[in-house]
Each structure stands twice: as C-alpha cells, then as structure tokens.
Amino acid sequence: MADEALFLLLHNEMVAGLYRAAEQGEGENGRCTTKLESMGFRVGQGLIERFTKDTARFKDELDIMKFICKDFWTTVFKKQIDNLRTNHQGIYVLQDNKFRLLTQISAGKQYLEHAPKYLAFTCGLIRGGLSNLGIKSIVTAEVSSMPACK
C-alpha cells in the first residue's frame, strides 16, 4: 500500500513540476504533455519487458490487449480495467470507472479541464507497453465525468 501512495505522490509532483516550469517560461503546456507522455512511454517499455519475461507469446492483438487490461493494469493501478471494447478492426477502448490518478482531483467538474495532463503519463505507459509487444499505436484519453476515463 505504501508503494501505491508513493506512485501517486510522484505522479502528482511530476505533473505539477512540469506545468510549474512551463508557467515560469521554461516551456509550453503542449510540450509538458509530450514530455509526460514520453516519460510514460519509457516506463511502459520497461514494465512490459519485465512482466512478460516468463509468459508465452501472445497469439494476436486481442490477447495482448487482454494482458494489458488484466495483468499490466492490475500491477500498476491495483485493479483491472472495467471494460474493454473493440471494433475488431484495430481500435480498442479501455474504460476505467475509478481511475486512481484522477480520484484525488475528482471533487467536481471544475477540475475536468485539468484531467488530460494527469492522463498523459498513462497514455505513454500503454503506448510504450504496446510498442515493446510489437504494436504501433496511438493512445488517447477521454474524460467525460471524473474519475472515469476511456
């Protein structure tokens, strides 16, 4: 449980620190999101490498996505993805109804506009993991009501 609290604090400080530096003129907000996403990408690559070292090869993309939703998400966020949908043409929608990185700022709709900066690292995490498994992807996040995200 202590490692979860440390991860949440580290993530919040990464986001706050990058955006604080941007406000002081050391960068732009768009570059902050890109930097968070690239940090997540590298972490995702490393985690997937570590988590899959003793597993058999995956049969197809759907098996990889199931692994991401169950094992990877459970290890990182201490719960499985609530819903996985696909159109069977390469588009997957992962839904987490109580996303841990948004629960602290989900007090009301006034923080809805700040949600994307708290999701950039996670988008990179997923994209990096998929990249290491041989899938080139574009990962986007959508928040319509907090703390749920797709």
Please describe the structure with a list of short key phrases separated by commas or semicolons:
Muramoyl-pentapeptide Carboxypeptidase, domain 2, globular, mainly alpha, 150 residues, 2 strands, Trafficking protein particle complex subunit 6B, TRAPP_component, 5 helices, two-stranded antiparallel ribbon
Describe this structure in words.
With 150 residues, the protein is mainly alpha-helical. It has a single domain (4-133), classed as Trafficking protein particle complex subunit 3 (Muramoyl-pentapeptide Carboxypeptidase, domain 2). Helix content is 56%, strand content 5%. It contains five helices and two strands, in the order αααββαα. The protein has a two-stranded antiparallel ribbon. β1 and β2 (92-95) form a beta hairpin. α1 runs antiparallel to α2. The radius of gyration is 15 Å and the shape is globular. It starts with a helix and ends in an 18-residue tail after the last helix. InterPro entries: NO_sig/Golgi_transp_ligand-bd, TRAPP_component, TRAPPC6/Trs33. It is found in: Endoplasmic reticulum; Golgi apparatus, cis-Golgi network. Its main location: endoplasmic reticulum. Belongs to the TRAPP small subunits family. BET3 subfamily. Pfam families: TRAPP.
Spatial separation of the terminal alpha carbons: 25 Å
Net shape: globular
Secondary-structure element string: HHHEEHH
The SS-based structural class is: mainly alpha
Number of strands: 2
Stretches with pLDDT under 50, minimum 5 residues: none
Q: How are the strands of the largest sheet arranged?
A: 1-2
CATH superfamily: Trafficking protein particle complex subunit 3
Family: Belongs to the TRAPP small subunits family. BET3 subfamily.
InterPro entries: NO_sig/Golgi_transp_ligand-bd, TRAPP_component, TRAPPC6/Trs33
Protein name: Trafficking protein particle complex subunit 6B
Subcellular location: Endoplasmic reticulum; Golgi apparatus, cis-Golgi network
